[in-house]
Amino acid sequence: MPVSPKPIVLLLGEVLHAPDEWSALSSLAELRQIKTGDREQFMRDCTTGVHDGILAISRTYDSVELTGRFDRDLVCLLPQSLKFISHNGAGYDQIDAEACANRGISVSNTPGAVDASTATTAIFLLLGALRRVHIPATALREGKWRGSMGLGHDAEGKTLGILGMGGIGTAFALRAAPFDFHLQYHNRNPVMHPSSNPTNAKYVSFDKLIRTSDIISIHLPLNDTTRGMIGREEFGMMKDGVVIVNTARGKIIDEGALVEALEQGKVFAAGLDVYESEPEIHPGLIKNDNVVLMPHVGTATVETQRKMEILVIDNIRNVLTKGSLLTPVVETRSHKL
To answer: What confidence tens digit (pLDDT) does each residue in 22-53 have?
Structure first.
């Protein structure tokens, strides 16, 4: 392939909400795009030099269908010229960031852009789970009025445990505070600056949060530490009748253990937007009327999708003008041109 006089940026997937901003990058770089194909083809093209010369990749969340996960096997085949990957998503478990770091490739995500929308979704799921809203909503559409809904619970006075007090966890706490919860949280480290804990939520240990919370809402990234963090042992430690909310990543919870806890009444209800093997969902969750289910749509608003795409584009623009990403992930934060 002939050498381009401009840096080359490869787009995996499509920019749907900020196409003009994406096109504007053409003044700084040669823009290429992949919209079809599969992992085998992408890896073959990397091996045969089709993508040689590419400086940066801009990838959408759904582009995993075109390439598969950016795991170690794929990363080792990426062209030597590649130095930057701008990923559209706050979570970046689709990318082996350590493998990228070992190759000298810097990776960015979209922190901040997703905070409000994901936190609002978590509030929706929390309130829906407390009232077990699926039961009367389904009954009403079936002409059964309230059905066999039973009584739910009020939010006031409940202890809400926030597992992960990053941007989304903080935005969630702000939205939860007006409901008169007692707020507590666990993080790797206590949040020190008041602006990062505007609700003055109380820092507690992981064990104390698990044992004393009436509701547990998960706002953690998926990594080797958090994978399977909530399993049978943790459910056994929880209060009877606890409510579980997860808008982070499904693999943080052992779904089989959650189903057992729901069936045993240990967990009163759950509100879930993410799943262990999505798009597949444990059948025990689907058949349980005490679970509010959503299909990973926490950021599915026009406004948030545009904010995410703009940040991805801004990361690429910064690469082209200043040689670095604006929002690099911690594993690759030191890499620059």
So the answer is: 999 999 999 999 999 999 999 999 999 999 99
Peptide bond into 5 cis (omega under 30): no
Structure tokens belonging to residue 139: 């009954």
CA dist 168 to 87, 121, 211, Å?
Answer: 18, 11, 23
- 98 annotated active-site: no
Query: Would you mind telling me the total number of residues written for the chain in this entry?
Result: 337
Whole-number Å distance between alpha carbons of 98 and 95: 9
278 catalytic residue (yes or no)? yes
Q: Which of 103, 153, 296, 306 is catalytic?
A: 296
List beta partners, residue 328.
Answer: 108
Cα–Cα dist 8/31, whole Å: 6
Give the tens place of pLDDT for each residue, 234-287: 999 999 999 999 999 999 999 999 999 999 999 999 999 999 999 999 999 999
Catalytic residue among 69, 98, 278, 333: 278
What is d(CA 122, CA 310) in angstroms, rounded to the nearest whole number?
Answer: 24
From residue 30, alpha-carbon distances to 7, 43, 154, 293 in Å are 6, 21, 56, 42
Concatenating the DSSP letter of every residue in 67-81 gives H--B-HHHHTTS-TT
Prior bond to 198 cis, omega within 30? no
Instruction: Give catalytic status of residue 188 as yes or no.
Output: no
Catalytic one among 131, 134, 249, 335?
249
Q: H or E element: which one contains 320?
A: helix 302-322
Using alpha carbons, select from 172, 260, 181 the residue that is nearest to residue 220: 172
